[in-house]
Automatic annotation (TrEMBL):
Record's protein name: Pep3/Vps18 beta-propeller domain-containing protein
Species in which this protein is naturally found: Volvox africanus
Residues in CHCR repeats: 792-956
Source superkingdom: Eukaryota
Skewed-composition ranges (Gly residues): 193-203
Origin organism lineage: Eukaryota, Viridiplantae, Chlorophyta, core chlorophytes, Chlorophyceae
Coiled-coil residue windows: 1029-1056
Length: 1200
């Protein structure tokens, strides 16, 4: 209910570190009245949490009697009344209250039966109600019959009435239940509901902030554990779909009770197993009663049970799932409690020793256990609080210690007040005795009387305690009371000071985290907000530095914690810790300069280095630049907040300002020099050897460079590293900065070829610019030619060969290394053949490289290139032919030189050079000019002259005779003897005559006769001359036959022309016109063209088609040019004006008179030269569009 709308509110002054909002009732019942002032405290009001109290339900019993118990879970409040009713309160999404009533105790029984406790699961689907009644017996002794004085009823949320559970009558009154909670993923967790949930001690489980993570079965409860007043522990499964529940499994028949310490309250004697089953509330049975139970699911299928009694807090843990004991039992709890001594399953045994035990100093029947779940019921609880005997024992739950614990240990770890154990760790004792006696002084201090604290709710940092009509909020960390409030119930309000009725108790909703306070007929909602505000100061006073930092909410609070911790460390002489926390201060107090000077003069060499490293990390966090390049290793990886400004004050530029970045750069440079100095010091101490301290210092420097390279000034850092000759770190710096150019320069300065090979590895990185490849290509090829060429070839997309020429051209010189030249030639071949480059410089380099290859293999490769690869489209050379010719001549490649001369058109020189090598090569060169017969004839004459003259020299040498002549002949003649031989002087003449046939008719015998000497007789040429004459005669006869054939053709043409002039054809007068369809004997339809006069009636074409003259003219004018169309109109108009029988047409349009026959012939030439539908005009129609511009609109109207 809204405070302002319902009651009005006034906020008291800030007390107890919190804002307390009280509701003042204006006349109606159901509201609280504050009867005392709050306790004054000293904490700052700006850090105070807020406490709200709102009315949740005004009349909880709804006229069904007094309220006896209250419990809540999952935003559902369950109220039991003295008349035996269970009221279920819930709220819809609009906040409307909904109530459902279930009668648990009938009207016949409610006179002597009273509901003592109610328990609900976290989902509020299942409810167990404990009912107490009168007791009595029929005899004495152990065998006397006893009337059971208690009942347990089961109510499902969908049931209109309760169901009794008679199987639970023998175990004693029900005092605690541990529910089984199904989590997401079918994992099992558990939450318990402690002792009684009603008047005088309403107790609930731990708070939870996450309701959506719980998935509880609506029909089945799963295995739940029940604790009774006599110390019995039962296991039971309830299913609302079953008409009758299975009998419970007894796990513990009764707990052994140790005699309490003298002077403690709530004591008693140990009860035997035989007497433990009675329902009489003796001191013994009260001491052994279970007051709270919690069932927790752990890893490896294990479960934990936390159970509180009036004197002890015990922790049991089941064996891991899959063990032999667990496999033999029906549940993990049976494996623990029934089989720990090897007894047969199903036979109850004594309780096994717990994993941990916490014993109360002063036992009390008012015992309540609360757990704290930080992430809701889906997670494990981390803290506990146990209220017993006016003392709250609280501590941490260390579940990691359970992983290696043995649940069947023979001796349990006992934890007394102020001590600690493995599972129950960091246990502290908080005395709360007398909290309730301050108002009226009637408490006995043990929690069992009317004045002691008897209800507890635990939050993250506080304990909410209720004693009679006083509500206290106690900080569990320092034990101080944050606020104390005394209330008086409005039903017993008095101005005379008479004692008012005490507040009934506190109830906590496990799922929603809501805390309810029950007072008479009303329920109040207690809300605590921002309870972590001010906790940092509490931890700071206790010097719990880490916890204080976790609770800080801003830079100012963190600065105060760091400052206090640094000053404490400085006082203790721990200069490195002081340096770390001084560096994390962001408000500039003390100034950076003073702190740096203090760290430099403290006597610890590492203090200044630690201070600067931490300050640099904190600055980087302020700039949002921490770890942008490196992966960690800085001492202040978790530092936060912006740092100092100029002169130690806060920077005004905000996060990321230029001032902070400049400070980062300065600090990083200073720290770099410190690391370098540490390296030199380590070398000096080790006598120049690289020892362990040296390696550690080098690692620290490299880590520093890796972490903060993005904040360093490149010039300053490089200068520092160069001054200390740290080449490896220079290489690392270039690599970290992404300065690939600097990195490559460093690598190329290293010994080769290792440096070049590492540089190629860098260049293979896709992020490296291609420009660096071109820049460093000369050095790479010079240092590692083969690896560099492999790299160039493997690049995708391919490199530009032209831009690699500066690295390749030097190997086109004769003095270049042969191995490197071969590698360069391999890349040039790749660029030409694979990349298809057409750059003339690349091709010139290819010519140079091929020319430098020695031997016949090199000349053959050069010839292959010149004939195939070096041409664009197979015709035009891509290289400089003159340059290639010069290289071929200088490198002694004569055949290549002949080929190049031919490309330059220097055929005579090519023939001359070829004749010096091979006659066959010369013949090939002479036959190359295909389209210039004169040049070919000249070249063949040159070859013939050489053949004849060489043959004459051979003959002369043979005639000169003697032994040495053979050598001369051999030297002058061709290797294959084609020039003749010494045995036949006329062989050279025969060779020359055979040569005439190879010349393809370009040479005759008379062309080569002048090359022979005068003494040669004509008899030697008789055969050649006769052959020549025969060819001439055959040519003359062929010409004569061609002339006779031409004459016959001319005569035939003249005869055909004469026949065409006299040709005629027969036509029927009823033959239709091809255009209009009318018979040609009838007049043509009227058109725009003239008709009548001397115009012919019709035209008949050799194709058999007939047209009226007007129709034929219309066909033609549609297709001819405008000028011809005009001529046709003029001729038809003149002929139409001629009177029938007239031979002359009068003048018309400026034209003189003319003969009718002339005009008719002219008209026939214009329109009757060919059939309009079967001649060239029809062919022209193929290019005419179907739709003209005038028809465009019509065509567009038909578009779909």
């Amino acid at each position: 209910m809204d405070l302002v709308e319902a009651f009005g509110a006034r906020a008291t002054a800030h007390h107890g570190g919190m804002e307390f909002f009280e509701r003042v009732e204006s006349g109606g019942s159901g509201d609280l009245v504050i009867i005392d002032a709050p306790v004054a405290v000293t904490s700052s009001s700006s850090e105070a949490p807020q406490l709200f109290i709102d009315t949740a339900i005004r009349q909880a019993s709804r006229g069904r009697g007094a309220v006896t118990c209250v419990t809540a879970s999952n935003d559902v409040v369950l109220v039991t009344t003295a008349r035996g009713y269970l009221l279920r309160y819930s709220w819809d999404e609009n906040g409307n209250e909904q109530v459902k009533e279930v009668e648990v105790v009938t009207s016949k029984q409610n006179a002597d039966h009273r509901i003592s406790a109610a328990f609900t699961d976290p989902a509020a689907n299942h409810v167990l109600v404990a009912v107490r009644g009168p007791t009595g017996g029929t005899g004495g002794g152990s065998g006397a019959a006893v009337h059971h004085s208690h009942e347990v009823y089961y109510v499902h949320r969908r049931w209109p009435r309760a169901r009794a559970l008679p199987e639970l009558r023998s175990g004693g009154p029900l005092t605690a239940v541990a529910w089984c909670v199904r989590q997401q993923g079918d994992e099992v967790s558990a939450a318990g509901t402690p002792g009684g949930g009603g008047v005088g001690g309403a107790r609930k489980g731990t708070p939870s902030s996450t309701a959506g993570s719980i998935s509880v079965g609506e029909s089945c409860t799963g295995p739940i554990l029940l604790g009774t007043e006599i110390g019995a522990l039962l296991e039971l499964v309830l299913d609302e779909r079953q008409k009758r529940e299975a009998p419970p499994k007894t796990l513990i028949e009764g707990l052994a009770v140790k005699e309490p310490r003298r002077g403690g309250a709530g004591g008693g004697h140990a009860a035997s197993a035989a007497s433990a089953s009675t329902s009489t509330s003796t001191p013994t049975s009260s001491a052994a009663a279970f007051t709270s139970l919690y069932q927790i699911s752990l890893l490896a299928g294990r479960k934990a049970l936390l159970a509180s009694t009036p004197s002890h807090l015990r922790v049991w843990v089941t064996p891991p799932a899959g063990g032999s004991a667990a496999a033999a039992a029906a549940s993990p709890w049976q494996a623990l409690f029934l089989n720990h001594t090897g007894q047969h399953p199903g036979r109850p045994g004594a309780a096994p020793p717990p994993l941990a035990v916490l014993e109360a100093v002063s036992p009390s029947p008012c015992s309540q256990l609360q757990l704290w779940w930080p992430m809701g019921l889906s997670d494990l609880p981390t803290r506990f609080a146990w209220l017993v005997g006016g003392v709250v024992y609280h501590g941490a739950l260390d579940w990691d210690a359970v992983a290696e614990a043995t649940p069947t240990a023979t001796a349990a770890a006992t934890v007394h007040s102020g001590g600690g154990g493995e599972v129950l760790s960091s246990v502290a004792m908080l005395p709360v005795d007398g909290y309730g006696s301050e108002a009226d002084g009637d408490g006995d201090g043990d929690g069992s009387g009317t004045g002691g604290a008897r209800s507890l709710v635990v939050t993250e940092y506080h304990l909410l305690l209720l004693a009679r009509d006083r509500l206290r909020l106690v900080n569990r960390v320092n034990g101080r009371t944050v606020v104390s409030r005394a209330f008086r119930s409005p039903l017993t309000r008095s101005v005379t000071g008479e004692p008012s009725r005490e507040i009934d108790g506190l109830v906590r909703d496990l799922v929603s985290g809501t805390t309810y306070m029950a007072v008479d007929e009303a329920l109040y909602d207690i809300t605590l907000q921002n309870e972590d505000r001010g906790m940092w100061r509490v931890y700071l006073e206790l010097q719990n530095w880490d916890a204080a930092l976790r609770c800080c909410s801003g830079p100012a609070q963190r600065d105060e914690v760091h400052r206090a911790r640094a000053e404490a460390a400085l006082t203790a002489g721990d200069y490195r810790t002081a340096a770390v926390h001084f560096a994390k201060i962001s408000d500039g107090r003390p100034p950076f300069e003073d702190l740096a000077l203090q760290m430099a003069e403290c006597g610890d060499p590492a203090a200044l280095q630690t201070f600067l490293a931490t300050r640099l990390a904190t600055l980087a966090v302020s700039l949002g630049a921490y770890g942008a390049r490196g992966g960690g290793g800085a001492a202040a990886a978790t530092a936060a907040a912006s740092l100092f400004g100029n002169n130690g004050t806060a920077a005004s530029g905000g996060p990321g300002s230029g001032s902070e970045r400049a400070q980062c750069t300065l600090v990083s440079a200073w720290l770099t020099e410190l690391y370098l100095h540490a390296i030199n010091r380590a070398l000096l101490e080790a006598g120049g050897e690289a020892g362990e301290s040296y390696q550690s210092a080098v690692t620290a420097l490299r880590t520093h460079l890796s972490d903060w390279v993005h904040l360093m000034d490149p010039g300053t850092t490089v200068s520092l590293l160069e001054s200390y000759c740290r080449l490896d770190e220079l290489l690392q710096l270039a690599q970290l900065r992404g300065d690939h150019e600097g990195l490559l320069e460093q690598l190329m300065a290293r010994p080769q070829p290792d440096g070049a090979i590492r540089a190629l590895t860098v260049l293979r990185n896709p992020s490296v610019s291609r420009e660096l490849v071109y820049k460093f290509a000369p050095g790479l090829v010079a240092a590692a030619a083969e690896e560099a060429v492999d790299f160039f070839i493997s690049q995708r997309p391919p490199l530009d060969p032209r831009r690699l020429l500066p690295a390749l051209l030097r190997y086109g010189e004769p003095h270049s290394p042969p191995m490197e030249r071969q590698c360069v030639l391999r890349y040039v071949e790749f660029a030409i053949e694979e990349l298809g480059t057409t750059d003339s410089v690349v091709h010139n380099l290819a010519v140079a490289l091929y020319s430098l290859v020695s031997g016949e293999e090199g000349e053959a490769a050069l010839l292959r290139y010149l004939t195939r690869a070096g041409r664009c489209g197979g015709t035009t050379p891509l290289y400089d032919t003159q340059y290639a010719l010069r290289l071929a001549q200088e490198c002694n490649k004569p055949r290549a030189a002949v080929r190049l001369m031919c490309q330059l058109g220097m055929y005579p020189d090519a023939v001359r050079a070829a004749l010096a090598l091979d006659l066959g090569l010369a013949k090939g060169v002479a036959g190359e000019p295909d389209h210039d017969d004169a040049l070919r004839r000249k070249l063949w004459l040159q070859v013939a002259r050489h053949v004849v003259e060489t043959g004459n020299k051979i003959v002369t040498a043979a005639a000169a005779g003697a032994g040495g002549g053979d050598a001369a002949v051999s030297a002058a003649g061709d290797a294959d003897g084609s020039y003749g031989s010494t045995s036949d002087p006329t062989s050279n003449i025969r060779t020359a005559v055979e040569f005439l046939r190879e010349a393809d008719g370009l040479l005759r015998i008379e062309d080569i006769l002048p090359f022979f000497p005068d003494f040669v007789t004509i008899d030697n040429f008789q055969a050649a001359i006769c052959d020549s004459l025969e060819r001439y005669g055959a040519a003359i006869e062929g010409l004569k036959a061609d002339m006779e054939e031409a004459t016959a053709i001319a005569e035939a043409l003249r005869a055909d022309i004469a026949m065409l002039g006299a040709r005629s054809a027969a036509v029927s007068l009823w033959q239709p016109c091809m255009r209009c369809g009318r018979p040609i004997s009838e007049a043509a339809p009227l058109t725009s063209l003239p008709q009548g006069g001397a115009l012919p009636a019709f035209y008949l074409f050799p194709t058999g088609c007939a047209y009226h003259v007007a129709c034929c003219a219309a066909e033609v004018t549609e297709l001819v040019a405008p000028l011809q169309r005009k001529r046709i109109h003029t001729l038809m108009a003149r002929l139409a004006r001629v009177k029938p029988g007239a031979a002359t047409a009068p003048a018309y349009g400026g034209a003189p008179a003319a003969d009718v026959s002339v005009l008719q012939e002219a008209l026939a030439n214009e329109i009757g030269a060919e059939d309009p539908r079967n001649g060239e005009l029809t062919v022209r129609l193929l290019e005419t569009p179907f739709v003209f511009g005038t028809d465009r609109a019509e065509a567009e109207s038909w578009v779909i």
